[in-house]
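As a warm-up, study this chain.
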Amino acid sequence: MKAAAPLQLREAGQSLWLDNITRDLLTSGTLKRYIDELSITGLTSNPTIFDQAITKSKAYDAAIRQKIRQIKSDEELFFALAIEDLTQAADLFRPIYDATDGVDGWVSLEVSPLLAYDTASTIAQAKELHARAGRPNLFIKIPGTKEGLPAIEEAIVAGVPVNVTLLFSREHYVAAADAYMRGIERRIAAGLNPNVRSVASVFISRWDKAVMDKTPHDLRDQLGIAVAKQTYRAYRGLLDSNRFQRLANAGARAQRLLWASTGVKDPEASDILYITSLAAPNTVNTMPEGTLLAFANHGEIGPLLTADDNAEEMLARFTRSGIDVTALAGDLQREGATSFVDSWNELMAGIAAKSQTLRKAS
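Now compare it with the structure written out below.
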């Protein structure tokens, strides 16, 4: 493995997180090696990742066999397994978390996707999962849907660090940032510590997949990057705003912008397109394992994004080609929520089948 490109990206001010977690990554020492050699400073997870990890391998069989004696619910069994993995990962990243005063060194656990449109249940589960994990460097992932925004605010008020997921546009990001700041403002008003961390995860590759066959070829693989540039400009403007500066003066920290879904879907495109194109100071890029290894192997950093990057003309070209970018953002968020529900249901079915097989064999 080569370390030059990942290290250069980190030195440019962008954190590299791994978008993967498996028990084998932990027990084989591979995650520790990525931390030591490839500058990885955090990781994210989602139901699809856990479905692949738990139901498609034997790595969890012993743990499932032991836990099914006490745990009857498939959901509870999943969270018990996931928290075991993520607390181990959090402990590996804890030195980074301590050394950066909480800027880096995070892992993420998602609330049940079935709760994406249920504010009260999302709040309750976010608090419960964070308390069970017992690690300060564990984010709870909450979707930035209309119903998720109040849950994000309440989780922040309760002191629960939040990774806001399923954001697809500048407008989605601004709404999530507003919910985060409202939570911090309420903590300050109550005399509580305003240093509750958060990241806002904007999904990239799904934009280009959605329009791949609907636009001229010269626009191929450019919509996700244009939306990211537009969002980054809004992010830097928010950090410079009077509202955030007042919060910072009271001890609050910035909600960091995170690029998610950075695995390239187009076989004609570079496998590291969204890494080289989205190098940006004060952000995070969470990437699939294959993308990380490709970037380590042949990565180069492109020009860094700045607050002056203007993507409006590129977005206007998509509009002229018949793409309603605003409507598509809403469609992508709904489809993303549905996709996570489908993955969740597959995960629950896989755990149920595996549990039944292991019970019969024991």
